[in-house]
From TrEMBL:
One of its GO terms (molecular function) is phosphoribosylanthranilate isomerase activity. The lineage of its organism: Bacteria, Pseudomonadati, Bacteroidota, Cytophagia, Cytophagales. This is N-(5'-phosphoribosyl)anthranilate isomerase. The keyword Amino-acid biosynthesis applies. GO terms for biological process: L-tryptophan biosynthetic process. It comes from the Bacteria. Its EC number is 5.3.1.24. The gene is trpF. It comes from Nitritalea halalkaliphila LW7.
Length: 211
């Protein structure tokens, strides 16, 4: 997110666990440089979303924006991620994104596990993210690691039941990352849609768990 008025309403009405700051210049959601101090002062945990940035640039933004999480959404190698892990403050998490097409190469992802705190699964597209497209979540049924993961890619208001189906067999599913399907225009979240989604998730969860 990038607009202060929109973020204010989000904090009052939704209180999400994290807020994402897109640090990929070609994105229409790229943060506003003139608001750096404002973003840095936000008390909600901040996820900086990077695409193929050199580690020095990532480290600088972690400091300037006071990020709690670095989301690596490009083709960063396991070696780069290992080096970044060594240089980052201990408390800053790395979420490595895995772009999913028709299959998942678990062996290739294994190399990221020692250096990341979560894997984040998004849909493989021509660009890098924010596509609004879903991949086949059935592929995650084979998730082989203890490390928690996050599901992303085209999540919509209607995804609540499907997300809870997925969570039932996979205790490693730690969260969902919602983006373009909850926007009025790129970079501006539809807070009413977010409220409907969180309500639907809570209702579905309670319906499934009442005795
Ligand atoms: O949102 C963007 O513009 C973006 C650009 C470059 C890399 C990642 C980006 N967003 C991330 O993409 C996923 C999925 O988004 P969507 O729900 O399919 O729109 C999510 O992790 C965003 O943080």
């Amino acid at each position: 997110m990038r607009e202060p008025a929109n973020i204010k309403v989000l904090l009052e009405r939704i209180r999400p666990a994290y807020i994402g700051l897109i640090l990929y210049p070609p994105s229409p959601r790229f943060i506003r440089a003139e608001l750096t101090d404002y973003y840095a002062r936000l008390t909600l945990p901040k996820v900086g979303v990077f695409v193929n940035e050199p580690n020095e640039a990532v480290l600088k933004q972690v400091e300037v924006l006071a990020l709690q999480v670095v989301q690596l959404h490009g083709k960063e190698t396991p070696e780069q991620v290992a080096a970044l892990r060594q240089s980052l403050p201990r408390e800053v998490e790395i979420w490595k994104v895995a772009s999913v097409g028709n299959a998942v190469d678990w062996k290739q992802l294994e190399a990221y596990v020692p250096h990341s705190s979560h894997l984040l699964f998004d849909t493989q597209v021509k660009g890098y993210g924010g596509s609004g497209q879903q991949f086949n979540w059935e592929l995650l049924q084979d998730y082989p690691f203890d490390m928690p993961f996050i599901v992303s890619g085209g999540i919509t208001e209607d995804s609540a039941a499907k997300l809870l189906d997925l969570a039932e067999g996979l205790p490693q599913l730690a969260g969902v990352d919602i983006n373009s399907k909850f926007e009025l225009v790129p970079g501006l979240k539809n807070i009413l849609a977010l409220e409907r989604f969180t309500k639907a998730l809570n209702k579905e969860y309670h319906d499934r768990n009442k005795s």
